[in-house]
């Protein structure tokens, strides 16, 4: 009798296991995205809605839309080798072919890449080799910030070639913080000049802060005001270390400062905004 | 007697040939099924030709019988290891149902990558079951070419 009961239980268990296995995952994506390492790694370049049998490796790099996951991270950090555009600081996500239910923001601080160019109707300035958002963020941006700013924790420890951006050319309308270097910004992460091997630093100097209310260190750096931060990062990599100076230029705290001092600044000029391609270098 | 047998055999053969000739117009299993295209929508064979023009290598495309998903016509084949199917629909409701049933099918039989794309009344279904296209290098031009039709 016991034996029959045991057999029945085992059969029931097997049936349940089979039923569970039959219901495979179908995860919907609406953009290109990194492929998790446990399913082979690399990058999926399908830029129309599609499905996979695996979920995102890290949901902090995505926005969940009605029709699937949209990747909001820096694709270059994930072995992406397609056309790319340089950005500096947070900005609205303005991919032309994607329509969101509401505004979606990129919360990545400092220099980073996206595969899309800003749309003409949005307020971006192309200056110093990157697009800077010079519009005003609505309250929704600040409300969602605690939820999404964690994306910087993902990229902080990742050494990958970030765009070269001249922060001296920051448009006056830029409301974000200027971070010269940060956790994980090493190797190709150069701000303020072309990439070049840097001399070894004499000992670990402390982080230098210029401005108000800055929090830098190992964790995420959230900077709300215009500040210039000099950070000395001492990760010993193969191609020079992540330290680059910036002129400690104080900027007015006003949200409506004087007109741009930099004559190179261009208010959204598509003619200057050729996509950068990995094989053509990262020239701004 | 022997002559009579030969005569009967000849008559029998003649009848067989006549009967065979009489069925010339009817389709056999090996003959291609005529495609009933839907108006004002990309046509299945046109899509396959466009893929070829775009440098892709569609192979083994043929009309599916019986026609699935309530479509008017469907063709199926492979493009560089990716299974592709193009269907024309007379009714939009049937197309929507097709997409739903595909999603259900994919959830039951895990597919690494699946894609459905609509262009007017034509549906593209692309599936990578064999993990041949992990980066979507085939699926991207497949979908892009289809959307331009």
Please describe what this structure looks like.
The complex is a heterodimer of chains A (284) and B (149). By secondary structure, chain A is α+β, with helices and mostly antiparallel strands. Chain A has a domain at 24-71. Helices cover 13% and strands 17% of the residues of chain A. In chain A, the strands form six sheets. Chain A has a five-stranded mixed beta sheet with strand order 10-7-12-11-16, with no helix packed on it. Chain B is α+β, with helices and mostly antiparallel strands and 149 residues long. Chain B has a domain at 44-147: Protein Transport Mog1p, Chain A (3-Layer(aba) Sandwich). In chain B, 38% of the residues lie in helices and 23% in strands. Chain B has four helices and five strands; from the N terminus they run ααβββαββα. Chain B has helices at residues 2-22, 44-53, 92-108, 139-147; strands at 58-63, 73-79, 82-88, 113-119, 122-128. In chain B, strands 1-2-3-5-4 form a five-stranded antiparallel beta sheet, sandwiched between helices. In chain B, a hairpin with a 2-residue loop joins strand 2 and strand 3 (82-88). The radius of gyration of chain B is 22 Å and the shape is globular. Residues 15-28 of chain B have low confidence and may be disordered. Classes of the chains: A alpha+beta (284), B alpha+beta (149). The A-B interface holds A 22-26, 32, 35, 39-40, 42-53 and B 103, 106-115, 117, 131, 134-137, 139-140, 143, 147. Strand 4 (50-52) of chain A pairs antiparallel with strand 4 of chain B.
